[in-house]
Amino acid sequence: MLFGGVFFPAIADEPGTSGPGFVEQAYGANPRIGRCYDAMAYHPYPYPFTAPELDVPVRGSVLAARDAMHAVLARHGDGSKQLWITEVGWPTHRGYGVSEEKQAQYVARMQAATFAQRLPVLTWYTYGDYDDPSDANQEAHFGFFRADGTPKPSYFALGAFARVFAGAHFVADRSRALGLPPGAENTGGRGFALEYARAGARITALWYANESGAEGQGAGPSGGTAGPATVRVRLPVRAHRVTIVGFLGSRRTVAVPRSGRLSLVLGPGPLYVIDTGRTASRTRGRHRG
User: Fold this and answer.
1) What is the enclosing helix (H) or strand (E) of 253?
2) What topology is assigned to 2-165 in CATH?
3) Is 266:229 a contact under the CB 8 Å cutoff?
4) Residue 131: how many other CB atoms lie within 10 Å
5) pTM for the full predicted model
């Protein structure tokens, strides 16, 4: 049984209308409500349609919504209940949305980040766009397919993630250990290095969320960065060669330096590094992978 889905952003000046606020009131009305459901479903839409990792005043970030919801449940003794995202998305609307490229980046980043948060369900809104003769309705543009049935880049981003991470589980967040920036409220600039594993391979998802609160809405060129557009990271790997998969599915195999560290330039489009090495031991003159 699901409780929800509760809409995360609050209505301005209306206390208790956010997801956590509403659930808190529900527990206040019935302290035993936890007996009535198995999992909590929520819809962490960002308004305006900012990057999923960007912390903004009052609302926080799409990713932080998980912590806010969990905190409410934990206060009432239900912290062990699952949290499900049963609706989220970014429209590719020219006036109030994001570009198709940015939508695809956000899809890939949400998949990787919520996987790391161990959320068992992430449901996207919606499958496909529909015709809107007025072109005034953002709701017509959330899809992975355009109204004419052709796929958007987000379709390929979702497929690439599913193929790379099939059978994998989350291991650890290596972001700060690798020296990636933590970002800041409204200015963004947060780096990610999330490690996963599956039989015979270690996979690291890496990206740099460079969007700020000034990121323009609409399908024009990306903009609004408050810091550098990219950052560089040196990722320790075990194999002699690794496969790097781009968030849209491109693949390349690269040789690893003798140092055992792979130098990568990170931007808003995630990279997935597949490392099939079995040992981290190396010497200056010889690989021991």
Assistant:
1) strand 251-255
2) TIM Barrel (3.20.20)
3) no
4) 8
5) 0.91
The Cα 104–Cα 155 span in angstroms is 8
Beta carbons of 50 and 2 less than 8 angstroms apart? no
User: Distance between CA atoms of 87 and 70, rounded to whole angstroms?
Assistant: 17
Position 289 pLDDT exceeds 80? no
277, 239 in Cβ contact below 8 A? yes
The residue written with tokens 């949305």 in the block is 97
The pLDDT of residue 253 is above 60: yes
Residue 240 identity: H
How many C-beta neighbours within 10 Å does residue 218 have?
A: 14
End-to-end CA distance of the chain: 48
List every span in the chain annotated with CATH 3.20.20.80: 2-165
Closest alpha carbon to 3 in 30, 13, 14, 11? 30
Q: Give SS3 for 160.
A: helix
**Percent of the chain whose predicted confidence (pLDDT) is above 90:** 72
Token pair in block for residue 232? 């560089």
Task: Report the interhelical angle of 19-29 vs 64-75 (nearest 10°).
Answer: 10
Reading the block at residue 233, the tokens are 């990271």
Helix (H) or strand (E) holding 241: strand 241-246
Q: Which fold has domain 169-275?
A: Immunoglobulin-like (2.60.40)
